[in-house]
Amino acid sequence: MGYTVSEVAEMSGISAHTLRYYDKQGLLPFVDRNKVGNRDFKDSDFEWLGVITCLKKSGMPVKKIRQYIEWSMEGDATLNERLEVFENHKKVVIEKIAEMQNYLDKIDYKIWFYQTAIESGTAAIHAQNNCVFTEGMDLSTVPNLHFPEQQ
After folding, report:
1. What's this model's pTM, rounded to 2 decimal places?
2. How far is CA 97 from the centre of its chain?
3. CB neighbour list of residue 20: distance below 8 Å, 6 or more residues apart
4. What is the pLDDT of residues 51-89, one digit of tens each?
5. Half-sphere exposure at residue 126, Cβ-oriented, CA atoms within 13 angstroms
6. C-alpha span between 37 and 20 (Å, rounded)
7. pLDDT digits (tens, 9 = 90+) for 93-146
8. Fold of 1-74
9. Buried b vs exposed e over 4-22: b needs ≥16 C-beta within 10 Å?
10. What are the extents of the domains in the chain?
């Protein structure tokens, strides 16, 4: 006996609504059905759900995930295509990480900006230093800017 949608939702953290949506989008061809037609998840299906969640949360469109799953269901004849899916998606994720790092740098800069302004009693201190954040700026050149992991 397997698991129901509700049980899988509780165990995986993926909502029942999302599981049903994934099924309608063709992302769950590996999930069996019981005698009355309800989804009947197996323990091995959780690995698939983990991969789907990873790809979805890292920005892969459902259409591409579906293609990857279809290729997986075809077996070894599609190993090259599946490898290419992950190599291409890795590039996308690396670009997103770089973008997020730029956002984090700006946030760290603004934290430093306000901390030093509070310490000196005015934000005008930064006007004297012509202190302006620019994207791609080397934050190691900003005086007294310390990131949490460096403290």
Report:
1. 0.76
2. 9
3. 5
4. 999 999 999 999 999 999 999 999 999 999 999 999 999
5. 19
6. 13
7. 999 999 999 999 999 989 988 998 999 898 888 776 656 666 666 666 665 555
8. Multidrug-efflux Transporter Regulator; Chain: A; Domain 2 (1.10.1660)
9. bbeebbeebebeeebbeeb
10. 1-74, 83-151
Q: Is 14 helix (H, G, I), strand (E, B) or coil?
A: coil
Match 């050149």 to its residue by tokens: 141
Query: Using an 8 Å Cβ cutoff, are 23 and 39 in contact?
Result: yes
- Structure-block tokens of residue 82: 């599946």
Report residue 40: phi and psi, to 5°: -130, 90
- What distances in angstroms separate CA 71 from CA 46, 66, 67, one per listed residue? 18, 9, 6
Site of tokens 């995986």: 12
- Kindly write down the DSSP assignment for every residue of 28-86, as one continuous string: -TT-EE-TTS-EEB-TTHHHHHHHHHHHHHTT--HHHHHHHHHHHHH-GGGHHHHHHHH
List the structure tokens of 69.
Answer: 């799953």
Q: Are 137 and 105 in contact (CB under 8 A)?
A: yes
